[in-house]
Specification:
Helix content: 25-40%
CATH topology of the largest domain: CBS-domain
Number of strands: 12
CATH superfamily of the largest domain: CBS-domain
Radius of gyration: 24 Å
Number of domains: 3
CATH class of the largest domain: Alpha Beta
CATH architecture of the largest domain: Roll
Number of helices: 12
Oligomer: single chain
């Protein structure tokens, strides 16, 4: 019995987000009006081992964001998102496989360098020779010294970092804790059969808390653009729910086994369409305007 108690006491404390979740669910928290009141509750939470000193410090900083030294809307929003993060799986926020920028272990060096320059990413999954084999993660900064020294004939296998591979069902907050512990920034996501389904970065998780994070390589584009009266253009990756709401369609997105417009079109036709293929639904004519051998990229929409 004592051994069991000792084992339980030796367990590491839960993550900051988990501790904050427990405390933010406290019904007394939402009734506080001043910093002093909130600070008292936080101190009480520390005394009861609901949260630790580090979590108390973070929460105290959060409540001082507003001009009046009380919890403002932005801080409240972040707190609520932190709670929801515990029920968010990496599958919901990952970059799907079709949108991943990867390199293969046996590619020519100049091809890899060109891809790094074109994409502007800092980390790249390196695929092996076998199906769904992840050989490692390549950091662009590891190649830079060799390029500067004029060495363009090297083996990327010598530079690969150990890949972090996680299942689709892994919770986002748990992965964030792993990123912090391992000081890593990217994980490969696999499904139940071990097939690569996408990747998720620390930026993807943080965007769930604070909203879209844009960098110098991001290009802002509207998902749906009006070209002229009765004619629109749309990105095939637009969420089906957003598309349905935009055009006031009667279609129920929840009844469709697809999350994006492109996925819906493929499901509707039963095959991967080619440029020029079209479907008609709810009075809309949706025409594939850009596609490759893996996915639909762009569509045109004719409205009566």
């Amino acid at each position: 019995m004592n051994q069991q108690l000792d084992k339980e006491e030796s367990q590491p404390p839960s993550g900051i987000i988990a501790r904050l979740k427990k405390y933010f669910r406290n019904p007394f928290f939402i009734k506080t009006q001043t910093v002093a009141e909130v600070a008292d509750f936080l101190k009480d939470a520390v005394d009861q081992n609901i949260i630790d000193k580090e979590a108390e410090s973070i929460a105290n900083k959060a409540i001082r964001l507003g001009d009046q030294n009380i919890i403002d809307k932005e801080a409240e929003s972040i707190a609520n998102k932190a709670i929801r993060l515990g029920s968010t799986t990496v599958k919901e926020i990952m970059v799907p496989k079709v949108d991943m920028v990867t390199v293969t272990v046996n590619e020519e060096t100049n091809v890899i360098i060109d891809r790094i320059i074109d994409s502007g990413h800092s980390r790249y999954p390196v695929l092996g020779t076998e199906r769904d084999e992840v050989a490692g993660i390549l950091l662009a900064k590891d190649i830079l010294p060799k390029i500067v020294n004029g060495n363009d004939n090297f083996e990327i296998g010598e530079m690969l970092r150990v890949p972090n591979i996680v299942p689709e069902t892994k919770k986002a907050d748990a992965l964030l804790e792993e990123f912090k512990k391992d000081r890593s920034h990217l994980a490969i996501v696999i499904d139940e059969y071990g097939t690569i389904s996408g990747l998720v970065t620390i930026e993807d998780i943080l965007e769930e808390l604070v909203g879209e994070i844009e960098d110098e390589h991001d290009v802002e584009e509207d998902d749906i653009i009006k070209i002229s009266d009765g004619l629109y253009a749309a990105d095939a990756k637009v969420e089906l729910e957003v598309f349905v709401e935009f055009f006031k369609m009667s279609l129920d997105p929840m009844s469709i086994d697809a999350e994006t417009l492109g996925g819906f079109i493929i499901s509707f036709l039963g095959v991967l369409p080619k440029i020029g293929d079209e479907i008609t639904i709810d009075g809309l004519t949706i025409i594939v305007s850009d596609a490759d051998d893996r996915k639909i990229n762009k569509v045109s929409i004719k409205v009566p």
